[in-house]
Write a structure and sequence with these properties.
This protein is an alpha+beta fold. The chain has 3 helices and 6 strands. The strands form 2 sheets. A 4-stranded mixed beta sheet has the order 3-4-6-5, with helices on one face. A two-stranded antiparallel sheet has the order 1-2. The protein is globular, with a radius of gyration of 15 Å.
Length: 107
């Protein structure tokens, strides 16, 4: 069943009629062959869990672009954006541009 609500990482299980939440790191997805190709770009829209998501990536070597959602009109997200920005810069990325509500970074 489809909903217009943004439910983040929640999926609807049609067999049980219940919501189930599935989270995993990119490292685990690669290790378990769920992802078996080089990742060149990542788009994060994880509702204030950006730092946790970024910490789930141990190898940024092949990643050329990161796009991270940040609503600049919400005080808590502005503060989080600053922390995300510092983390991303430590990984040798620089701010490229803003597209809608996303900050885009590149190497």
């Amino acid at each position: 069943e489809k909903s217009d609500n943004n439910s983040g990482g929640t999926n609807w299980n049609s067999k049980t009629g219940k919501e189930c939440t599935i989270f995993d790191t990119i490292d685990n997805l690669i290790k378990n062959n769920k992802i078996n190709h080089i990742i060149r770009a990542i788009q994060l829209d994880v509702e204030t869990h950006e730092l946790k998501a970024l910490n789930g990536i141990s190898n940024f070597e092949n990643i050329e672009y990161l796009s991270v959602e940040c609503h600049m009109n919400v005080e808590s997200e502005i503060k989080l954006s600053s922390s995300v920005d510092k983390f991303i810069k430590l990984k040798n990325f620089k701010f490229l541009r803003r597209i809608n509500s996303n900050n885009v970074y590149t190497k």
